[in-house]
Design brief:
By secondary structure, the protein is an alpha/beta fold. It has a single domain, classed as Purple Acid Phosphatase, chain A, domain 2 (4-Layer Sandwich). It contains 9 helices and 12 strands. Strands 1-5-6-7-8-10-9 form a 7-stranded mixed β-sheet, with no helix packed on it. Helix 3 links the parallel strand 2 and strand 3. The longest helix is centred in the first third of the chain and has 17 residues. The chain is globular. The N terminus is likely disordered.
Length: 308
Amino acid sequence: MQRRQFAYLSAASRAVPGLGSRLARYRVVMATEHVIFVSDTHLSPDAPEAQRNWAAVVRYVAAADPDLVIHLGDLSLDGARNPADLVHARSQLEMLPVPWTAVPGNHDIGDNPLPGRPEDMPVTEARRQRWLDVIGADYWSLSIAGWTLLAVNSQLAGSGLAAEANQWSWLEGQLRSADPNQRLAVLAHKPFTASEAEVGAAPAYRFWRAASRDRLRYLFADRPPALFISGHVHQSRELRLDGTDHLWVPTTWAVLPDHAQPVLGTKRSGVLSLAFGPGLAPQPTFCEPDGLRQLTITVDIPDRYHGR
């Protein structure tokens, strides 16, 4: 019954324009334990190889029968500039046989404002609204099996949009009202951080920017999250920093060649499976669904962003 209730609320939040953003201000309670995380699917009619790999993920989810699938962004190939990609990606989420929810990535609604980046890349309110209308809430909270999951829209950080201020206020309120007996997990498209040396050497678009990281650290100073789960880098990885386990969810589409991106974790496409439970530390399992092809951009498939 609780699974059906969440499915109904999820469908309602996406079917009625604006309702998803209102539901994001409230905590939806559900009793789930098994969650499969997917990320960076880059779905589009222009990326048939992404579609084939997504079909393998759908088959895997059907066999695993989790309580929930959470998508951590870059759902679409280029939904920020091509609305049809976002609509197509939504139709592919509907193929999942279990409830799902998602947060946006840079290819869905635009990137954080960054020096030297093209002017048509930053997130805008219109692009964000498109996500709300087509997919649903862009930040939200769930209580599951002794945990509070706080999903945030990392693309808003540093944007200066009204939605950014609203999200910070919402997050502060969530932390004030969170059950002290539940552990916290933060979900976002972009990784929060890594070692100081790695962050210093990384391109500005890989991690949260310094000012936003500092603000998050301040908010969680008295109650650090047990988990920070993200996608974006197209690599799987586990890091433990300052008492928080950082999990990187791999892409289901394709990895980047080494000359374009260094090896930071494991360059294999797949999904992340987690079992949540009261008093239990989740044991992450990185899985490669049967039929999912291991592809490298510019080696096995074209660079779909070249010339876009």
